[in-house]
Please model this.
Amino acid sequence: LPIFTLQKSLHPSVGAKAEGGSLPAKDYTRLETTDVVMKYNYGRVEFSGPSIRASRDTRGALMQVSKLEMKAVTDAMRNDINRQLASGDGTGKLALINGSSQTTTWTLDSLLGRGFTTGTETTPTKYLSAGMRVDVGDATTYTTIDVSAATVTTVDSSTQVTGTTISGHDDNGFVMRAGAAASEMMGLAGIVDDGGQLDTLQTITRSTAGNSYWKSSVVDKGSVSAPAELQESDMQSAASLIEKNDGELSFVLTTYALRDKYASILQSDKRYVNTIELQGGFKSLEFNGVALTPDKDCVPFNMFFVDKSTLELYEMAPISWMQDDGAILNRVADLDAYEATLFYYANLGANNCVRNACLSYVQ
Model:
């Protein structure tokens, strides 16, 4: 459990004095302690003994089922971790249920619970898939689960899915992965925020008097239903807020749509910007000498301006297969079948939120 001390403000015992004057009065810097709680992500696969035997060579006419399943669940976990880090706030919400009366057809709205009503990137069913199990949390206290482990059968449209019958839930209840309520990793959406989305981060409440140091700068240009046109001057304003709070801009994370809009602004002004090569051979546009990078899971209509020295990914264990008993594959009791479990113990922590900024509601 990482525990560290935060400096809430500049040290008060400094100042100019006349020759022979008394030294500044002794005082102390204002401090706060906080901790980063580990979060636990899992993936699980199971396959029958006959399917393994049939896939050992080409005579079985099947793919090597164990490799296929294990790669598939690993890819799924990596995708889900990316979503948690890019657009999560630790709650686990993927969308809201639209209406308290549902049967086998569920209607969703509000991707990530943000209230978006426009744009192709705001599809409420974006993070649901066939076979997925979800909970519906109470609209008032989302950790109170009104519907537990309902199964998605098919994703039918941008707003509807077919699944097992659900009932007894609130309108605007949180749709989350089964068991994930308040258990997901913290993401940029929760850290780079002024309390409008997440008021309490790492046990510190942003709205409490004296805790402004724990708020990031948020520049709202439009509204959730009517985003404003992106202007380069607005981007500069967000970047300047980081510098005004003694931070140093390291990178900008945004959506593909906003990356493309920024590129079109440069083209319309007949300006050419350098590209920055990132690890793994990926390239990114440059803004103020740092990488402006798109991510498929970034919150729509948002740009996160980040000082990476304020963030730390704490890992208790990397993404790994459980094998403390000496084997990755284990027999399923009373069945001719085998199972394997993937796990990841980690969380994203912050040490100085005020040195980050968000430009929101732009397109």
